[in-house]
């Protein structure tokens, strides 16, 4: 069913798990991401890099003493592994790459 993954991600994760301040829910969001990334089709990938997910990922990667740092690092490892098998290209034209890059370069993670 076209758009099902995008709808699932938006309702369950973006508007659900990452809205909460709970470490447990955000951890579950990271685990769902790591599970869905290798299964997602190329057109669905940008939906997984939603603003709430990206913000939480970058915030937790930024500080090694954060409770969710290991889970965020695992997600980053999943992204790298996904890119290495050639299923996507990390280019400036890729929507989710464009979403990550400005924050990484500016050091602004929590906004």
Largest sheet: none
Distance between the termini: 34 Å
C-alpha-based Rg, rounded: 13 Å
Our count of domains comes out at 1
Order of helices and strands: HHHHHH
How much helix, percentage-wise, in residues? 55-70%
Query: How much strand content do the residues show?
Result: under 5%
Number of helices: 6
Which structural class is indicated by helix and strand composition? mainly alpha
Shape call: globular
Mean pLDDT reading: 81
Per DSSP E runs of 2 or more residues, the count of β-strands stands at: 0
Poorly predicted runs of 5 or more residues:
none
Summarize this structure as a short list of keywords or feature phrases.
single chain, 111 residues, mainly alpha
Question: What does this protein look like?
Answer:
There is one protein chain. The chain is mainly alpha-helical and 111 residues long. The protein has one domain. The chain is 65% helix and 0% strand. The protein is built from 6 helices and no strands. Helix 1 runs antiparallel to helix 2, helix 2 packs parallel to helix 5 and helix 4 packs across helix 5. The radius of gyration is 13 Å and the shape is globular. 20% of the residues are buried.
């Amino acid at each position: 069913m076209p758009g099902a993954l995008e709808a699932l991600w938006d309702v369950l994760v973006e508007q659900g798990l990452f809205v909460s301040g709970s470490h447990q829910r955000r951890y579950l969001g990271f685990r769902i991401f790591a599970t869905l990334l290798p299964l997602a089709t190329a057109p669905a990938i940008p939906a997984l890099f939603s603003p709430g997910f990206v913000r939480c990922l970058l915030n937790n990667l930024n500080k090694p003493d954060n409770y969710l740092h290991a889970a965020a690092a695992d997600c980053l490892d999943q992204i790298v592994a996904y890119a290495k098998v050639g299923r996507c290209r990390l280019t400036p034209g890729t929507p989710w790459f464009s979403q990550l890059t400005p924050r990484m370069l500016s050091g602004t993670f929590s906004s």
